[in-house]
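TL;DR need C-alpha cells for one chain.
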Amino acid sequence: MPLINIKITNDGVTKEQKQQLIEGATQLMVDILNKNPATTMVIIDEVDTDNWGIGTRQVTDLRKENGS
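>> reply
TL;DR here they are.
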C-alpha cells in the first residue's frame, strides 16, 4: 500500500488542482511501479509560508522581496 506525501505552501491551491495532483501521483505509481490505484494513498500537506524555509529565510519574506 503506497503512501505519497506531497508538501506545498498554502498559496491558494484549488480543490481541482489538488485533485489533479492526487490523480497524477497515483497514476505515476501505477505506470512506474505497477501499484494498485485502489490502495495508493496520497496526502497533501499545506504548509504556511512562515513555516517553510529556504536557506536561512522564511518563504514569506523571500516572496515579499521578489514581489510574489
